[in-house]
Amino acid sequence: MLGLLGRTLLALAGLAGAGWLSGYPLTFLLLGSWGLLAWHLYQLVRLERELAKGKDWRIQDVGGLWGEVYSQLFKLQKQYEQRERLLKGTLGKFREAIAAVPDAAVALDDSDAVLWANQAAERLLGLHMPQDSGQRLANLVRHPAFVAFLGSAGGEEGVEFPAPSESGRILHARLIPYGQGQRLLIATDITRMHRLEQVRRDFVANVSHELRTPLTVINGYLETLLDSDDPCIERWQRPLRGMAQQSGRMLHIIEDLLMLSRLENDAERRPEKAVAMPELLAALAEDAIALSGERGHQVQVAADPGLWVQGCEKEIRSACANLVFNAVRHTPAGSRVEIRWFVDEQGCPCLQVADNGEGIPAQHIPRLTERFYRVDKGRQRESGGTGLGLAIVKHVMQRHGGQLGIISQLGVGSTFTCRFPAERRRMSPGKSALG
Ligand code: ADP
Questions:
Q1: What phi-psi label fits residue 352: left (phi over 0), alpha (psi between -120 and 50 degrees) or beta?
Q2: Which of 135, 120, 190 is CA-nearest to residue 161?
Q3: Distance between Cα 326 and ligand 1 center (Å)
Q4: Ligand 1 pocket, residue 327 CB under 6 Å
Q5: What is the model's pTM?
Q6: 301-328 tens-digit pLDDT
Q7: Is the pLDDT of residue 299 over 90?
Q8: For residue 287, which phi and psi values (nearest 5 degrees)?
Q9: Is 415 in the pocket of ligand 1 (CB under 6 A)?
């Protein structure tokens, strides 16, 4: 800029000199300034026209200040083109990498319209790119569970659904938020895992089924022998009683395994009705007192008399029984067990089984609903449980769209809460539900 100033001042000084010599310095200065202004305006208009051509603009054959402006612009454009080439190369490589990923990846905008999808998405989700770009994904993949998942915030667990492109193929989808309101959908083919899981379930169900009959027979004979008055049985009483106890336990485990298999088999429809919970809980409380026997647990029931729940009675009874009997089995003699049945603030029917036993160490709580998980393995096997009780409760609650919550504090006790969805709330005939 100093160069420009110097040159301009020099030109003006020359003009002033010429004007002074001719006797009209001001006129010369004025005409000279206009001339300079006109020249710069002309160069500006030329530059504007060149730049309007976009990438095809040309350096004008001009020296001085305007020559410098053109060469700076040219340098900037070269740098920009180099950066663009670099970015395109990186983007190309990134796209190649994403395209090679075996999982389907679909980028969605804030209204869940497809921005971009890789090859696996075309294969697994049946998308056609670029034709489907801009279409809402829910209109392209229409499975109800998938559409509901897309509409939700996209929980961490994701959703399983059959692949629209190929029958028998199962996909698992997750949504990952990014940018401003955009989401990335990742769908993985889990057909193999699904089949293995099915094989495992069938195996457990078949083995349990096959073992049930012989065990029932053995158990029956053992009980007959124990009931017999035959004097030669007398000396075998102790081993026979031990055998009857163990075979009874095995039978109990098998019944629970079969129950879990039935619960896991989603295809099986179970009968649902309004379940009279206050009566069911009162009966369970009596059974719990009988189970406690000489250990003298104090079992109390506080149930809303007008509150029933819609569901499968057999499953709900099993869930409640597991919680109530656990509270007796896993607490010291004389402990207090409170069974509460009420509607919470959100209008959801809740069953709460609280005890003032020893409580459960915090690190065990997340794992309690795993099959055969026990806090104190040796002691609790003696307590008569199968190790499957809480797994059953969790599955029953899942099947009814509810949740199992566990709160426990060492030395204070444990509270197990089964929360059913509000729409399952029913009123007992002739009574109105409180709350
Ligand atoms: P189990 O047949 O052993 O009772 P569950 O699945 O019902 O199996 O329970 C798993 C474990 O959770 C139990 O072995 C016990 O350690 C613990 N548990 C369950 N209920 C209670 C409770 N009310 N108080 C303390 N521990 C409990």
A1: beta
A2: 190
A3: 6
A4: yes
A5: 0.69
A6: 999 999 999 999 999 999 999 999 999 9
A7: yes
A8: -60, -40
A9: no
